[in-house]
Input
Amino acid sequence: MVDDFDAAESSDGQILTHALLKLRMRDGLVPARLHADRRGQAASLLRLPAAQGDAEAAVNVVGGAVRRMTNGTHQVVADATLALGLFADSYAANGVPAKVIQDLRSDTLGRRRLALLNHWHRLHEALSFTAGPPPSDRTLRETVELRVLRELAYALVSPQPTDPTTTAPLDEPDSEPAAPKYGRVIVVGGAVMDATFRTKMIPAHETSGFAHDFQLMPGGKGLWQAVAAAKLGLEVSLVAAIGDDRFGREIIDYLKAENVDTSLLKIVRGARTPFTGVVELDLGDSIALIWRNDQVVKLDTNDVDTNAEEIAACDALLLTFEIPRETTQRTLTLAHADADTGRRPLIIVTSGQPDPNEGISRASLQLIDYFVSHAWELDKYSPPDLLRFNPDRVGEHLLSRGIETLCLLGNGGGTIYSDTAAGTFRLSSVFSLYKESSTARDAFCAALVAKLLENNRTLTQPVARWATAAMAYAAESFGTLNSLPTRPQIEQRLQTLS
Output
């Protein structure tokens, strides 16, 4: 199921993960195969700085990264999956039969997997690791190998410490030590596949041009906010609609790899997953075409009604305008179902383009705690007598219509307008060479909800600064491997925030 999975968090990481997943097939990662396929899947490995186009050097680079893995199970799995033979001498010295060692270098992936699973404990013990129970064949194929090769791609693109747990059993997909959970979050929004072309210049009408980079990977505001929140230790479920084609399956695999619960997804049988085509310049300017397939793949009111109990019982709801207007308004109503008892989720809504032409109703606006937007997305919410856009007037107008807090982002900073004790204040400005990436706002929303849940839902300037630091990290990491920050990365960026 995951052989075509494009899973990583940047162009380089995505391409390398895809290449490793493809190259594990047949005889694995051997120099002859890389040399023969140097213009195909092997190209990304041969471009690694330490490889310098040499196939044997590329294999050695990968082998070195596997040896540096601190999780023993990941070492054993990577070695067998890619047929590297790194530990053949250690296996032989510790009594592993020659036939087993030979099978681990077989030119058939199925035989390598069988040898790995049948001799799971013995292989670990030969390397002085203690292993948990072996995974099932399906779990090995669909979860463990994906996780291990994705980690390997991380290390090859941007060497960093790997999982410190050296004896984690891998019999279940989520058997690695779980991060502490800081709250239960439901995200309702979009999940699509993004096809992104990077170019020096957007071609003029009726002309063509060349792209210098391309990536195909899961996207959508709902998906990215869910991933961003999961990286901060929140327990996250995504409510979105996808097709049951290969791209829908890739989205599910990607979310699972990022610790996002997929049990609330709507999977439309026989349907094609929505796509966004993006043409992006080097400094972040972009244009996009969105194919929603919304006559077939969409969240309707019945779908959110199905998840009514989950929505009402969560600690926070992140909602985006990627879904139909009536579904947005129904979701807000469901979140307030238990409001009379004093128990309802914190609600953060993100506007976006294209969003409902007429906006949402005043009654629905009154159900929003935090409305996060760019200035150009608020025309439909401007006072009727406003002839020229004025953010302060628009902010005051939205507060008068019932929104508790408006976070107006842009130009590396922004303004928060609030009816709470925090009042109105400016966010720290963040300088970046790049235009604000789409994920920067998603990082802001996830960090805002995480910090508000920790701070008894009370907005303060330190809470806003923490969310701004997350946005800054994402903006400055545009085009790199891991643009959505973890808590330590936010804390580090916070120290340099002006």
Remarks:
- The longest strand covers residues 192-199.
- The chain is about 40% helix and 15% strand.
- The CA atoms of residues 351 and 357 lie 12 Å apart.
